[in-house]
Amino acid sequence: MNFRPRRGAALGALCALALLVSACGGGNSNGSSAPKASGAKPSMAFVGPNGETPTAADQLSLTPEDMDKIKAGNFTAAFVWHEDSALVKAVESGARKQFEKLGIKVVATTSADFDAAKQANNVQSVLAKNPNVIVTIAVDPTSAAAAFKPAVDKGTKLVIMTTPPKGYKAGQQMVGIVTMDLAAMGKANAEMLGKALNGKGKVGYLYHDADFWFTNQRDKAFKDWLAYLYPDIQIVAQQGFSDPARTEDIANAMLTQHSDLNGMYVAWATAADGVLSALRSAGRKEVKVVTNDLEANQAADLVKGGNMAGMVNNGSVRVGEGLATMAGYGLIGKKAPEMVVGAPKTATKDTIADAWRDDYAQDPPASVTK
Question: Which residues does UniProt assign to the signal peptide (predicted)?
Fold first, then answer.
């Protein structure tokens, strides 16, 4: 899957998952190991949808005594997803493995196909199976607040991947949130693009034009770190989008207005499809692109040395493990961090296989590697 936004209510359910990363070590035009910094250093801090502060994923753990308590409870769990995709399957795979270690039986898994009404119906269907915990991501935060209220009233523990129902708070209506380090993702993209451009050039910036905490902070982190690390790279064109289908038109306009464009940032991978199409149609093989999420089309372009310079993964399996571990906290009444973030991995031509395995717990498909 992608935690990517879709039209209408689905804008609230981003893909999306990824996280605390140390500096990736970009390069500048003189070939030094670290780029030249300029101005005030951007913060690595960010907050969740209700102002939650991040806690590193390695701080989330259960003691042997905790695990014994959970196993003794004979608890059950269910997944109420927003969509069915490769990323969702990877997250669920990680969660199922951890649930198995904790003796928690999975009794249901559902997909809403990015339909808020369908997700509400799925909640009712799942509650009929009386799970002790539900792992979910809200399709539409506003309507999800009412949809999940019966679960809250019933005492079912809610563990959230990235996007909670509106107004739900950790330790109250939900146990907590598991997501990605957005500042680290933005910084990693800036470093990869800076290195690909040898520390200088002109860039187009295609950001998510919607009021959504996840993408907004990630996009801003890219912009801030690019300016700080690579003062000789300028963003000369910027345009927001809410519909990924519009990115090809936006990219075409940028290329027309700025014939000397060297690079582009796109908020997430499927939205980069349109950008790649525009670049290919214009014969602009030299323009380098970075984005978030690992998708086969962009990964194949990366491997064959096309326009893609790099991607940032979601650590999906690790996110699933974190969701299941946080569920354990809730089931035994152990106070959990309000928001846990894991570290993303960068995917370049040389590292795509490792990043893909980290994201999906399997080797990249032949369409990528061959």
Answer: 1-23
